[in-house]
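Posting for a labmate who doesn't have an account.
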Amino acid sequence: MFKIYTPVLTKIRKKSSIKTYLILVLMWIVICPCDLYAASLKELHEKAYLSTLEELRKYADSLSNKSESHYILGLGYLKNHLEQKASKEFEEVLRLEPGNINALWGQAEVLRRNNEYEKSIKILDEVLRKNPEHAPALITKSYTQLLLGDLQQAIKTAAVVERLQETGKPVDKPNLARAYLIIATAKIRIVEKSIFLGKLQALTIKGYIMKAAEINPDAAEVRFALGNFYLFAPGFWGGNVDLAIEEFKKALNKDPQFMDAYVRLAQTYRKKNDLPQLNYYLDKIKKLDPNNKLAKELGYLK
């Protein structure tokens, strides 16, 4: 296992044997897995987010714990959109430690990226039954709910991560930023459906985006969220299609595989009646991600 942090179980009488103590420890692990790995999980996710793949490979080689080594490599592969390699690393963790909830989350995230939402949710629910405060699982589940159009539930799930942070629980910064962005994006999507954005809604949405920007201002997800805000907000609340285009392009500069940014660029150029640019980005979407859910929702793909 990575690092195990357990509260004091009970006072063991001096005459109690080491065997009895070990049994109690094992019982605690089985009965309450929610406290396992929490602190080290936060550290691993933050390290993976800030490091290059080569740096992570060197770090993994330096670790004596093989499960931890495979897990952080899996995170590195996820960051670089190498889902198949990530899946193999998580499988290796599960071979070494059957039932490891962090590796199960990793598998669920790979399934989510492969658009296998039902399978992903099933695994995530298993993880969250064992540890309701598992931030990566909460984020993957809330993002899946967002993709499936369950906007209110996506907000509710992401808000759990926000509350964990507020109550001093260990939440890694990348996933905290994602929680803010999921809430902002879900609220934008609600506005997109209602075609109305009031001042309070605008301030609330931008407030969540700026919270994420404070954590990582250059993240592709942050630039994308700002682009959404500028695209859908009325001009008197800060909407601006040119700023939207600028932010979507910044997102793609940071992450060329951010497919939804291509979709939003097509949508923004359509709003500007710029047909050459609209067709350029539609062609990009068709070639790079012919099953993109957002593009299908907007009628750009069948």
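Reply:
Got it, the structure tokens are right above this. Residues 166 and 300 are 40 Å apart (CA to CA).
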